[in-house]
């Protein structure tokens, strides 16, 4: 007879693998299907909150997470904010997330997302009750009265299977197949702003920023940017960087001078080698519900927003911790349906609050500040 699992997880980015670890530790039988064999080498979610680090502690991989950090151990995780460009006389080095460290059991952390993903994938290997199918793509999801069927196919090979389980969770990112096939609509706001994400190497940029105290990030605010940012982040100290910025709507890899954009944001010339250039649309999107019967969604499948404030991955990790113990409670027979439903009731408002009160409000605040104050008009007031 065909094996039946308790939970099938579609998508094994950081959120899907974290859910597999959470459920595996609780003794549930799971299968995880992830298209990519290896994590994508784009740093993305680097800034882990204190709460996220606490999750890694309970998953048994705190030391591995700290060891996977690329920046030196005591290198500050906060950043510089500069007006117009990084060569400007107007700048500040405000404290960021580290100011709330004393309120938590663990301090926050900074490392490229793929490093954290490798830590989670290694933990997954220790959990015999979780079957990880890296290199498998989910093609269809079908909900029955007593369970869920997910059809998966081996990427680039002939393997094809239909998996049966009690519950399914879509952790398959912003373009979630699970969300779509479960018929869950998404609402939200589109800022209609195209953004570029560039990875590059430049020692000269590192040298040029030595006038500042050591910092991990450099955010440029500019009256012409309408409240959006240009943002440099260190991947290591001295060479590797990521950068994101608004760009004109019709920008492609081939019709735009990204090196000139970087130098303009820095305010000084420097040489660099690009490793990656990609784009994303600045928008806030939230699913109308995080649950449709026996199907749940978590992470970017449920919510996505610009990386302003670094909430995306952290929110996703909080989702899986909330959902994980409730699924286990239900499957072990002591949790009610109402308990399971509380996942949606608790997590969705958190995202709405994050999107509206932090991300959107922050963009609006910067926009209003830059309209209201200018050193050219009134330096003292600025
Ligand atoms: C420039 C940038 C900076 C960021 N900085 C931060 C930050 O500092 N802090 C923070 O918290 N967040 C940050 N984020 C957001 C963070 O990267 C995302 O929130 C995070 O990747 C979400 O993880 P996820 O696992 O939900 O989705 P994803 O990372 O998108 O993973 C989804 C996975 O599902 C797989 N998949 C999709 N469809 C299928 C299918 N049909 N079958 C099998 N597999 C499938 C994909 O291959 C992928 O691996 C940043 C994002 C960007 C772009």
Can you give a write-up of this model?
With 382 residues, the chain is α/β, with parallel strands linked by helices. The protein is 30% helix and 29% strand. Strands 1, 2, 7, 8, 9, 10, 16 and 17 form an 8-stranded mixed sheet that branches. Strands 5-4-12-13-14-11-15-18 form an 8-stranded mixed sheet, with helices on both faces. A two-stranded antiparallel ribbon has the order 3-6. The longest helix is centred in the last third of the chain and has 36 residues, at 337-372. It is elongated, with a radius of gyration of 22 Å. The mean pLDDT is 95. The protein binds flavin-adenine dinucleotide. Residues 10-16, 33-36, 44-47, 113, 137-138, 171-173, 177, 197, 244, 280, 299-300, 307, 310-314, 316 line the site of flavin-adenine dinucleotide. Residues 10-16, 33-36, 44-47, 113, 137-138, 171-173, 177, 197, 244, 280, 299-300, 307, 310-314, 316 line the site of flavin-adenine dinucleotide (FAD).
Shape: elongated
Strand content: 25-35%
Structural class: alpha/beta
**Quaternary structure:** single chain
Mean pLDDT across residues: 95
Q: How many distinct helices?
A: 9
Span of the ends, CA to CA:
73 Å
Q: Tell me about the biggest sheet?
A: 8 strands, mixed
According to DSSP, the number of beta strands is 18
List unreliable stretches of 5+ residues. Answer: none
Helix and strand pattern: EHEEHHEEEHEEEEHEHEEEHEEEEHH
Rounded to an integer in angstroms, the radius of gyration calculated over CA atoms is 22 Å
Q: What ions, cofactors and ligands are bound?
A: flavin-adenine dinucleotide
């Amino acid at each position: 007879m065909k094996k039946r699992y308790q939970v099938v997880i579609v998508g094994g980015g950081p959120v899907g693998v974290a859910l597999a670890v959470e459920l595996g530790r609780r003794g549930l039988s799971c299968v995880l299907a992830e298209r990519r064999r290896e994590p994508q080498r784009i740093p993305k979610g680097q800034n882990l909150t204190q709460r996220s680090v606490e999750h890694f502690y309970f998953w048994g991989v705190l030391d591995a997470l700290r060891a996977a950090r690329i920046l030196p151990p005591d290198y500050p995780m906060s950043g510089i904010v500069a007006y117009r460009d990084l060569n400007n006389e107007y700048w500040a080095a405000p404290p960021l997330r580290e100011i709330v460290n004393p309120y938590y059991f663990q301090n926050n952390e900074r490392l490229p997302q793929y490093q954290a993903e490798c830590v989670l994938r290694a933990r997954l290997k220790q959990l015999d009750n979780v079957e990880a199918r890296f290199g498998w793509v989910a093609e269809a999801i079908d909900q029955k009265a007593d369970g869920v069927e997910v059809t998966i196919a081996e990427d680039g090979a002939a393997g094809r299977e239909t998996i049966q389980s009690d519950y399914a969770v879509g952790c398959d990112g912003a373009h979630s197949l699970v969300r779509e096939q479960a018929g869950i609509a998404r609402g939200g706001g589109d800022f209609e702003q195209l953004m570029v994400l560039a990875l590059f190497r430049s020692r000269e940029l590192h040298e040029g920023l030595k006038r500042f105290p050591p910092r991990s990030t450099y955010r440029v605010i500019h009256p012409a940017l309408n409240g959006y940012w240009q943002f440099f982040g260190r991947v290591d100290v001295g060479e590797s960087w990521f950068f994101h910025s608004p760009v004109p709507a019709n920008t492609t890899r081939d019709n735009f001078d990204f090196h000139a954009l970087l130098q303009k944001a820095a305010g000084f010339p420097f040489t660099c080698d690009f490793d990656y250039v990609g784009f994303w649309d600045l928008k806030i999107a939230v699913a109308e519900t995080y649950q449709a019967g026996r199907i749940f969604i978590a992470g970017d499948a449920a919510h996505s927003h610009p990386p302003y404030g670094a909430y995306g991955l952290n929110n996703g990790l909080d989702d899986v911790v909330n959902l994980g113990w409730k699924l286990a409670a239900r499957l072990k027979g002591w949790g009610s349906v109402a308990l399971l439903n509380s996942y949606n009731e608790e997590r969705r408002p958190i995202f709405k609050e994050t999107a509206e009160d932090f991300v959107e409000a922050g963009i609006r605040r910067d926009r209003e500040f830059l309209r209201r104050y200018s050193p050219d008009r009134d330096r003292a007031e600025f």
